[in-house]
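re: ur question from earlier - yeah i can do the single chain one, its not a big deal. heres the input i used so u can compare w yours
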Amino acid sequence: MPISGVVVGATGSFKIGFVPPTNFIPPSSGPTVTVDDTSVTLSAVAADNTFTATVASTDTGTSFNLTVSLVNDQGTTVTGIFSVPILPTPPPPPTSIVDVTLDQTA
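and the output i got, formated as tokens:
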């Protein structure tokens, strides 16, 4: 699934994948994830290589970068940097009219 972004004030869920996707030797350390935006909080990477990123409701940025790093079985550091859009808060859904008002205009 492609990276679609995280709404400001919300949490996005991510899963780290490896290349090749099957029949690989597990990393000797990692993966770890860091972020370049101090208004984004990361969870720890779980055993299934998932983590979350929470964007503060006060964040005014338009994107943040996640850096995923690991050390493979050969001792080589493997790093990927991924840009994640910060999406505006969507408007509330339409609601039913429950009353009426009347204003005098002249």
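The chain has no helices and seven strands. not sure if urs matches, ping me
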